[in-house]
Amino acid sequence: KNEVEQSPQNLTAQEGEFITINCSYSVGISALHWLQQHPGGGIVSLFMLSSGKKKHGRLIATINIQEKHSSLHITASHPRDSAVYICAVNSNSGYALNFGKGTSLLVTP
Amino acid sequence: DAGVTQSPTHLIKTRGQHVTLRCSPISGHKSVSWYQQVLGQGPQFIFQYYEKEERGRGNFPDRFSARQFPNYSSELNVNALLLGDSALYLCASSLSSTASTDTQYFGPGTRLTVL
Q1: CA distances to A46, B9, B25, B71, B82 from B100, in Å
Q2: Per-residue pLDDT tens digits for B46-87
Q3: I want to staple A35 with a disulfide (CB 3.0 to 4.6 A). Which of A16, A86, B12, B16 is the partner?
């Protein structure tokens, strides 16, 4: 099984701050996902990437395949960004996703 | 278009009972995956179905079973419920058979409490 580690586990930031959440995994992958989970449970897919960098609005995701590491950045953070951010990688079988435990982000006004 | 829907939203059962959870994927999506999320943990993969066939199974006991219907909706069944089965059960749909390399669209989940 591909172990997925996220850091930090919890993060509090003030509105406007630049935020970085890190994800590392133990074996080679073909895809890494970043997901957002709001209180109540709903999960939204933010990015799926296999190399390089992707940007969507204030969110940027990068991946370094050689170092088995990915980062999710949030620029100009806002209280509505408060959520749990989860990293997931595909398993060797190709069917399953292995998830990290998530990073709980709180952005205060 | 409607997103992924799940029913029921919440469910309370007692130990030893059986439960059926339902999921309707986004129109056109043929793949459905089921995940269990225990409080404070990331989701864990239970099953993936594509075109009504089981394509993958996670490390869950035989008490857990699932099926996919011709309209691509899916049911997750859990027999002989244990306290440890209390969790949020998430369904996700995607277009392709290799769900883990495809964008997955998640439903709101079913919160199961076993007393």
Answers
A1: 14, 25, 16, 22, 29
A2: 999 999 999 889 999 999 999 999 999 999 999 999 999 999
A3: A86
